[in-house]
Amino acid sequence: MRICSLLPSATEMVFALGLGRFLSGVSHECDFPPQAARLPKLTRSNIPSGLPSNQIDATVSSTLETAGSLYELNLSVLESLRPDLILTQRLCDVCAVSFDRVQEAVNNLTSHPKILNLEPRSLEGIFENIRQVAGATDAPEAGEKLANSLRARVEAVRAKTQNIRERPRVLCMEWVDPPYCGGHWMKELVEIAGGRDELARLHKPSVRVEWKQVVEFAPEVIVLTCCGFELDRSVEEAKILSGFEGAHDLPAVRAGRVYATDASHFFSRPGPRIVESLEILAHLIHPELFAPPPLAEAFKPIALREFHAANTPA
To answer: What domain count does the chain have?
Structure first.
């Protein structure tokens, strides 16, 4: 079987199922495990690199309105690979090539591949996607085994937090400038990890929130889970956050409980490592219950002195 994946999360699923040898091509964002990055690239981004986050937000909106997609398919490479199965999604046009463009391309491919559309909105949805990929690749037993092992790790976290009385107010920011709340599985992750994020939208897309809502919520823990940003870029976003009116008075800032994360590889990637995202959150919210996970490259506490370095207004 020749598999092409247009999603980093799907690529990780294929490798986690032990089927990486069948992958023929991947998206330009597929970089884990390392061998995935060496495969032919099937997509490219229409968004210029190096833009500040507020310009990225504006460019995304205008590009979707005018071009209909943030990404393009490399049709000649896709045709040359003659895929039997293409893994894609229609959940979010910001995250991958639009489903309509994939469907249009497939109609013209001589190999007549099957399309598997993945649309997870929850933890259980992610586990179901794993089973779907496994079923489509004739590996249903591997899918059940992987999904069950991930679910067991989730339940291990839940068992430690389900009876705790103190549930800190947690804000997971999917974007800083302008501010966006967490969406889809993020509220669920926070609740299992022993916190409460009342600005997040359960199993629904993230949306822009007014900064005054954040101030009124007064989060005790802030976790920057900026979609598509790795750790170093999230640290820079924290400096922007520090310029927002009233930021220094937030309980999370006063207590030194603001954290940057590598959301690109963890929180915003609905694949097997979403469980590691949960384990990171559990430690950040309840360090008295959860030891630091062995993922030093995935998160970083932001010292108050870094907040004082910025002067960007809200």
So the answer is: 2
